[in-house]
Amino acid sequence: MNKISVIIPVYNEEKFLEKSIEKIITRIEKNKKFIPAYEILLIENGSNDKSFQIGKRLEKRYQFIKTFHLNYASYGQAIKMGILKAKNKIIIIFNVDFWNINFLKKGLKLINGSDIIVGSKTLIPSKDQRPQYRRLTTYFFNFILKMVFNFPGTDTHGLKIMKKNKILPLARKCATYNELFDTELILRACKEKLILIEIPIDIKETRPSRYNNLKRFGNIIKDLYLIFRIKYLNGFYYHR
Q1: Contact 203, 127 (CB under 8 A)
Q2: Is 35 helix (H, G, I), strand (E, B) or coil?
Q3: How confident is the model over 54-78, as pLDDT tens digits?
């Protein structure tokens, strides 16, 4: 039985949150054959709108929804909190504006024979319909990961299915706080020789990013430096 914990970071999502969660629930309920039991963890982080209040309202409406709060905006720490709070053995990473039930169904069929399933935006025959600059940024970032960190895959950021017992110890060691938490997590998983499978996925931008691009770029540089320092100075095995 696939008991899953769906982790969804939430940052300034009051316009989309309720409608998106309702759609996710509807699609999961239509696929109870594959997903008989689940919880949804909404990790609101640093929002200055009514996202947290909406999350608590959804929590009252559905017993399988839990809403948590971080005082500061941090995509990475929101995911980490979700991993720590998740009760089930299988963890799913979705976003309010980017989730895919077909990916979930395919991944759940493969997870017993692997440790992590990644929805790759660049793997053929994926269809990446985001703006060109977003696609180029992804390709450039993946090039850096291959050249500098010897990453064998094609994507680290986005939808994932993971075994909690495998990734929880790695999540506790991760030093990054912002955009690249899941990138560090995947790099650590490769270092530990966990079994990683990539699935092609279609993606289309449904709304502009809520993050300041300049600030986001700065956070990415900081996280890249942290990952570089850990890998080449401290070693992934020894960082605490």
Answers
A1: yes
A2: coil
A3: 999 999 999 999 999 999 999 999 9
CA distance 71 to 128: 33
Helices (H), ranges, the chain: 17-29, 51-61, 75-85, 101-110, 132-149, 164-173, 181-191, 213-229
For 91-106, the pLDDT digits (tens) are: 999 999 999 999 999 9
Q: Tokens representing 42?
A: 């909404």
Task: Answer whether 180's CB lies under 8 Å from 222's CB.
Answer: no
Do the Cβ atoms of 196 and 154 come closer than 8 Å? no
DSSP 3-state of 70: strand
pLDDT digits 0-9 by tens, 100-130: 999 999 999 999 999 999 999 988 888 888 8
- List the CATH code of the domain at 3-234: 3.90.550.10
What is the DSSP secondary structure assignment for residue 34, as one 8-state letter? T
Look at residues 193, 5, 182, 184 and name the one whose alpha carbon lies nearest to residue 84.
5
The structure's pTM equals: 0.88
Other CB atoms within 10 A of residue 86 CB? 21
SS3 call for 118: strand
Determine the length of the chain: 240
